[in-house]
């Protein structure tokens, strides 16, 4: 047998040799199922599952304590410094969430936020 034929034979047999020595793990006969309550789906939570490699903790959702949660409950009356019934950027403190989202909330792009526009922001 010549060298090119031996090389081709070895290359052709390599996948078979690998398939015979590769470790495979059996599929679990008891698949993991998890059912959560509506509250857990909305508020988040965590659970620990057992995997073949050890325990796995799965965490989902958003933390309950948002630093600026009260910003999203604000009304025009709360922030309207001059009492004209609308908000302009100058009336909103820089630390307020609405300040950085002003252009998003001002849906008609007139530079003023009405109560209707603010209500849609929530």
Q: How would you sum up this structure in a few lines?
A:
With 122 residues, the protein is an alpha+beta fold. The chain is built from 6 helices and 2 strands; from the N terminus they run ααββαααα.
Primary descriptors:
122 residues; alpha+beta; two-stranded antiparallel sheet; 6 helices
Helices, by number, come to 6
* Fraction of residues in helix: 25-40%
Largest sheet, strands/sense/barrel = 2 strands, antiparallel
Shape: elongated
Order of SSEs: HHEEHHHH
Blueprint of the fold:
Blueprint: H1 3-21, H2 38-43, E1 45-51, E2 54-60, H3 76-79, H4 97-100, H5 102-105, H6 115-121
Antiparallel strand pairs: 1-2
What does this structure look like?
The chain is of the alpha+beta class and 122 residues long. Among the domains are: 32-63, no CATH class; 69-121, no CATH class. Helix content is 36%, strand content 11%. It is built from six helices and two strands. It has helices at 3-21, 38-43, 76-79, 97-100, 102-105, 115-121, and strands at 45-51, 54-60. A two-stranded antiparallel sheet has the order 1-2. Strand 1 (45-51) and strand 2 form a beta hairpin. It is elongated and about 95 Å long. The mean pLDDT is 77.
């Amino acid at each position: 047998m010549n060298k090119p034929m031996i090389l081709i034979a070895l290359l052709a047999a390599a996948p078979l040799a690998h398939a015979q020595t590769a470790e495979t793990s059996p599929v679990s006969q008891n698949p993991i199922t998890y059912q959560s309550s509506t509250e857990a789906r909305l508020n988040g939570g965590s659970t620990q599952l057992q995997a073949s490699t050890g325990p796995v903790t799965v965490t989902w959702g958003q933390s309950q304590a948002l630093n600026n949660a009260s910003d999203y409950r604000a009304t025009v009356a709360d922030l309207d410094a001059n009492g004209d019934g609308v908000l302009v950027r100058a009336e909103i403190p820089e630390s307020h969430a609405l300040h950085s989202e002003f252009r998003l909330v001002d849906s008609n792009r007139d530079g003023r936020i009405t109560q209707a526009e603010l209500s849609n922001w929530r």
